[in-house]
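just leaving the lab so this will be short. what follows is a protein written twice so to speak, once as letters and once as structure tokens for the fold. can you read through it and tell me how you think this chain folds. thanks a lot i owe you, the record is right below.

___
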Amino acid sequence: MIIFLMLILLGGIALSQPILGEADSLTYEKDRIIYTGHVKLSRGNAIITADKVVIYLDENRKAKKAEAEGHVKYVEGNRRASADRAEYDFQSDVIKLFGNAKVEEGKNFVEADQIVYYRKEDRAVAMSEGKRVRTFYVEEKGEKVRDSK
């Protein structure tokens, strides 16, 4: 299935490359950094945009959790994700997309009310209420399908 493409959404931001942050306003408090209005966070060729992003800090001022809300979009090459809201727990390495969640890579996609990606386990769960989870997968030419025997 295509869940393997479940981006590195906010997870990629946790790595040591520099991050460029842009927003209409920034508030720093001892336990969080709040970006508000037309937020854009860039790291390498990965870009996250949202109406608001809050990065929660631990006692050593290291990021422990990030939340993005309002028109959340992630782009990295041909990988894209969108949702109404997203959360990333840096310690457990779990990414959650909420509300109109969609993850795409090329023509392939998965859509659900909620998509949770457990990065350490390389496992994802997509769930919806009142509608079905939708996926679309196009096998590339020359790609061999494994026999499960």
